[in-house]
Amino acid sequence: MNAKTFRLFIVLLISVFALGAQAQTKKEAALQGVYLSGDVFGYIYPIFVKDKYYSADLALTANLNNRFFPVVEAGIGHTNMVSQLYEIGYSTRAPYYRIGMDYNMQYENGKSNYIYLGGRVGYTAFDYSVNAPALIDPIWGGEVPVLLTDVPSSAVWAEVVGGVRAEIAKNIYLGWSLRYKYLLHQGAVTNGGPWYIPGFGTGKKTVFGATYTISYYFKL
After folding, report:
1. Residue 187 has what pLDDT?
2. Bridging pattern class, strands 114-136 and 196-197
3. 89-104 and 68-82 beta bridge pairing
4. pLDDT tens figures, 79-117
5. What pLDDT shows up at residue 95?
6. Architecture per CATH, 3-23+31-219
7. Three-state SS sequence of the chain
8. What does the angle CA 133 – CA 137 – CA 143 come to, to the nearest 5 degrees?
9. Which residues pair with 121 in a beta bridge?
């Protein structure tokens, strides 16, 4: 992570927690419990689409008076994709991290099931490799190899999150979320930039994502 990216990442993290802190009173800040969650959607989604990239992550979510839910997420994203049409290969594997806050839209009813809205800031640093059929030089003839190996890159992004969490057995929850992701910063881009960014998705400015989680609630 270069200095500029690091400063941007820290500023965004501080902003996320500052907004949550301003909205809480001392009474509302009481810790009720902690959710430990695992997302399985990142390995189900590629079954139904042609772009084969995978992700798996874990999350720790604190329950502050059943209203505010600070969350930390960490995972690994990877792909070893080869385009059948263009015979271009792309591969990467790297960890990613997200931190943010959710707000229970139904906190007044006192129930353990809830609908939430929230936000995240994500970061990853990764290397990617690209290989493709050799290009023919139209002037001098001969072939020009297309091979990029372990190109370094990084990314910072923001997410708007909406979802639900429901208890299916004692302290065991299922949930899902939809996420709108916006790329805030990307490391130095060379040769067109990365096709897939771990934790974010395909290398566009904005993408949509989803999670399907299984959680265990440690009540305090």
Report:
1. 83
2. unpaired
3. antiparallel
4. 998 876 667 889 999 999 999 999 999 888 777 899 999
5. 97
6. Beta Barrel (2.40)
7. CCHHHHHHHHHHHHHHHHHHHHCCCCHHHCEEEEEEEEECHHHHHHHHCCCCEEEEEEEEEEEECCCEEEEEEEEEEEEEEECCCCCCEEEEEEEEEEEEEEEECCHHHCCCCEEEEEEEEEEEEEEEEEEEEEEECCCCCCEEEEEEEEEEEEEEEEEEEEEEEEEEECCEEEEEEEEEEEEEEECCCCCCCCCEECCCEECCCEEEEEEEEEEEEEEC
8. 45
9. 99, 158
Q: Look at residue 16 and tell me whether its pLDDT is greater than 70.
A: no
Going from N- to C-terminal start, the domains of the chain cover: 3-23+31-219
CA distance 42 to 53: 8
* 154-187 as b/e: b if 16+ CB within 10 A: bbbbbbebebebebeeeeebebebebebebbebb
Q: What percent of the chain has pLDDT over 90?
A: 55
46 has a pLDDT exceeding 90: no
- Predicted local distance difference test score (pLDDT) of residue 30: 87
Please name the residue that has the structure tokens 């502050």: 64
Nearest to 62 by CA among 182, 180, 217, 189: 217
pTM: 0.82
